[in-house]
Amino acid sequence: MKYNRVLLKLSGEALAGEQGFGINPVVVADVARQIKDAKDLGVEIAIVCGGGNIWRGKTGSDMGMERAAADYMGMLATVMNGMALQNALEAIGVNTRLLSAIDMKEVAEPYIRRRAVRHLEKGRIVIFGAGTGSPFFTTDTTAALRAAEMNADVILMAKNGVDGVYSADPKVDPTAKKYDHITYLDVLNEDLHIMDQTAITLCKDNGIDLCVFNMQEDGNIAKACDGASIGTIISK
Ligand code: UDP
């Protein structure tokens, strides 16, 4: 395997299926199976779940809510997704731990960095819920932060139907070209929207590689874990 330890970023959308919102247990089961296939290749996997399929803080604040309160709701949404994913993984015999950045001892362990590392070393899949635990951040930034804390080799950013980074939106501009490999500086200079700027800066400053790939294609999570060239690699 190219990588020993990966941080998989799943957007909330990945768990919603065709309806585009909420949690679809059939879809979650399929994602879990793909994650198990990757795990069985011998790679340590940590996962950051998004929450956009249930709630996004910005949507609430655009409609007049206080941003911090709306963001905390978004973080709670990520815990629900984490629980659904944990349930689906355990159902197929994968040992997991859900670690929450907001204390919720009845449903998740508290996030303790050294404990998370220990779980990974013991071969458990670690799911990080509740983002960073602070409002005004995103789960992309959480992915960058946890990847740095876990010393992950790479962040695997699983996209729904998008197979990498393009020079422009390929749905709008037919001349858009897909990149196989770009640097974080290119991303900043060309203002490519892959993750928010905070997350990009965190990755760039800490030398964390990022792989953007399409998880709609069966088997791609395992391929991405093995470093196959299936999407776009962004590095320093
Ligand atoms: N969120 C937050 N702090 C964090 C991570 C997430 O406040 O550290 C909130 C924020 O409101 C965000 C929501 O949780 O909109 C759901 O996360 P995100 O939008 O990143 O999910 P995704 O788009 O990946 O599904």
UniProtKB/TrEMBL annotation:
UniProt keywords (A-Z) are:
Allosteric enzyme, ATP-binding, Cytoplasm, Kinase, Nucleotide-binding, Pyrimidine biosynthesis, Transferase
Pfam families for this protein: AA_kinase (PF00696)
Activity regulation field: Allosterically activated by GTP. Inhibited by UTP.
Its UniProt entry gives the catalysed reaction(s) as: UMP + ATP = UDP + ADP
Tell me the pathway. Pyrimidine metabolism; CTP biosynthesis via de novo pathway; UDP from UMP (UMPK route): step 1/1
| Segments of this protein annotated with the region Involved in allosteric activation by GTP | 17-22
Binding positions for UMP per the UniProt entry? G51, D71, T132, G133, S134, P135, F136, F137, T138, T139
This entry's Enzyme Commission designation comes to 2.7.4.22
Function comment: Catalyzes the reversible phosphorylation of UMP to UDP.
Q: Describe its partners and assembly state.
A: Homohexamer.
State the NCBIfam families in the record.
pyrH_bact (TIGR02075)
Family membership, please give it: Belongs to the UMP kinase family.
Task: Output the HAMAP family linked to this UniProt entry.
Answer: PyrH_B (MF_01220_B)
Identify this protein by name. Answer: Uridylate kinase
